[in-house]
Structures are given as C-alpha cells and as structure tokens.
Amino acid sequence: MKVCKCDNSILLDILCILAIMNKIALVIEGGGFKSVFSAGVLDAFIINNFNPFDIYLGVSSGAMALSYYLANQYKAYFSISHDVCISEDFLSYKHALSEEGYMNLKYLTKYAVRTHPLDFTKIRQSTNNKQFYIIATNTENGKAVYLEPSERTIYRCLRATSSLPFFTKGICRIDGVNLMDGAWSDPIPAQSAIKFGSKKVIVIRPHPLGYKFDGLNYLGLLAGYWWQNNSKKSELFFSEYDNYNNAVDFLVKDHIGAEILQIQPDNVLKSTVLGTGQKDLLDDYHVGLEKGLDFINNYNL
Question: Which positions ≥6 away from 223 have C-beta within 8 Å?
Fold first, then answer.
C-alpha cells in the first residue's frame, strides 16, 4: 500500500484554508435593558467555557454584554444593569433636556469603570487572531461603522454604539467622525458576519422568533422630522423599521454556504428598552441563562 506524503507547509496551508472556511460568528443584537437576556446567554457560555467563535459583532447594549463575555467577567453586565436601572443618576426625565439626556451614558461608563472595569487583557486574549467589532452609525451618511476597540478606545466605542437621539447625548465623536447607535444602520449584523468570512452565525436576540417592527416608532419619526433638512440623515430614521425588518428576514433565508442560528426568548421579555424593575430584570436574565444552557446542550458547532 502506498502512503501519500504531504509536505508540512502544504498541510499547514490546507489547515489554514479549512479554518478560514469554517469561521463561526457571534452576533449580539441590542435592546437596552432587554439585553440582560443576552447577558444571561453569554454567562451560560462563560460558566461552560464555551467560546468556539472567530468573529464577534455587537450592537448598542449588546456590544457591552459582548465585551464582558470576551473579558470572561461572569455576571458583570447583569450587576451593572441591576444597579443602574433604579438610579436617577442614569435614568431621569429631569435630565431629559440636559446635555446628557434622559439616559446618561457618561454616568453609566463611570459606574462600570468603578464597579466592574473591563479586563482588556482577557479581551485581547479572547480575540487574539480573531475579529471583534462594535457597530456604530455615521451620523452624516447613515452608514455602519465597524469599530475595532482597543484598551484606550473601548469605552468610547461602547458609548458611540449606544448613543440615541434625544434620549442620550445623541452622538459620540471618534477619530473625527460623529457616531450614534449602530442599530440605525446594521441592527442585526448577520449579513456583515458572513461578509467578514463566517460560514456559521449565532445570533442572540432579546425578542421572540419573527419579531419585527410594525411601523416607524416615535423616536424614528421625531428624529426624521427633526433632521428633515438633511436628507441622508432624515432618511436613515424614516427607514428604520424597513432596515430592521429586512435584517430579521435575512436571518431565516437560505444562504448558500452559510448557516444562521438564533438564540432568543420564547415570549416577550418583561424588561423594556429604556426602563425596567429589578425583579423583571432578574427574571429576564434567568431566561437567558436557561436558553444559553439549552443551546450548548443541543447544538454541535
């Protein structure tokens, strides 16, 4: 019997090609306080040392939950959310017309740094030779910006992807570009994950299967009219529900050479995007924990 010998360099090249062809992406949708569900899923991953991913993409509050997952900081996101959801320093209609707005992201950043600072050394280790993106929106042209955070910029990137017109300071400036919430341009970046080279995409969403916007929400409507003299910016807000619903439709389409799996609650969560009570937050977190454990047990990646 002949034995076919393969040069080590050729074998290494083949293994590298196979690795590239089989990249797995983790996509975390935003959702304000609803993202405590996503944090529950990610904490289930942490306690089971489950991290088979090569590409990471997080949007808005989902990016913050993702960052704590990559830092391997169990229950940190939940603890922060649990504390600030009842804090008037973070949420207050009294501050709605102030520079920082109803939701004070500067306070949230300071609170997170003081109580649960991100361990960027572990983030760097988790993402070594991998891709990690925090998604924001360029306010001038409405296009998605895929930020690659460093230890110096990560908190600013997280503020940028969570900045909402009227409810927060509105924009965050990075490298001379005005940025706001990534959900306006790429709300569920599964398609982007495939473009970045993923063949399997795991999407964590804080909404039940098939959830869509049933029309333009009041924030998009208000923002669209507010910037009606800027056609690009105005259209960004007026087309919000179309962008979101198209992203939802993309999740369930057949994609040649790519597979998308979703992790989401069976029912509408108790928490809302812009506010919640501590008990509701805890209940939604436990739903996420359970779904995360179910995913690990039922899916072979």
Answer: 165, 166, 237
Among 206, 180, 204, 209, smallest CA distance to 193 is for 204
Helix residue spans in the chain (DSSP H): 8-21, 35-47, 61-70, 76-84, 105-115, 120-126, 154-161, 190-195, 218-226, 231-238, 240-252, 278-298
**C-beta of residue 217 within 8 angstroms of C-beta of residue 165:** no
Q: What are the residues whose beta carbons fall under 8 Å from the beta carbon of 221, sequence distance 6 or more?
A: 237, 238
* CB neighbourhood size of 130 (10 A): 13
pLDDT at 19 over 70: no
Q: How many CB atoms lie within 10 A of CB 159?
A: 21
The candidate with the shortest Cα–Cα distance to 85, out of 292, 287, 210, 270, is 270
Q: What pLDDT is stored for residue 18 in this prediction? A: 41
Residue 194: closest CA among 58, 21, 19: 21
pTM, two decimals, is 0.87
The one-character DSSP state at 230 is S
| Mean pLDDT in residue range 212-216 | 74
Q: Is residue 169 over pLDDT 80?
A: no
Of residues 237, 205, 233, the one with CA closest to residue 221: 237
Residue 196 has pLDDT above 50, yes or no: yes
What are the residues facing 55 on neighbouring strands? 25, 131
